[in-house]
Amino acid sequence: MARVHHVFMTAFTATPFGQTPVLEINGKQTHQSAAICRFLAEKFGLNGSNDWEDLEVDAIVDTFTDFRQCKNVVLEVE
Ligand SMILES: N[C@@H](CCC(=O)N[C@@H](CS)C(=O)NCC(=O)O)C(=O)O
Question: Does 1-77 carry CATH code 3.30.1370?
Fold first, then answer.
């Protein structure tokens, strides 16, 4: 168990700001899941077909971020 913890912590200290997920392309690393999703959506043609659809996609991503923050609050209360 200690080894797993050590490997886990080593992996995290090697990432930007010690967080995951991390996207690495051509030896360059970046983090922040929403930014990574927007980048990949643009790269693979998964964006909306107009500005309004892009806005709706961003709103959904931001809503998921809100949900994740709520989950953390609930876990702290328990
Ligand atoms: N805003 C970041 C949050 C990332 C995040 O909280 N990642 C967690 C794992 S899911 C993490 O790295 N926790 C370790 C830490 O923050 O030290 C994102 O959306 O990518």
Answer: no
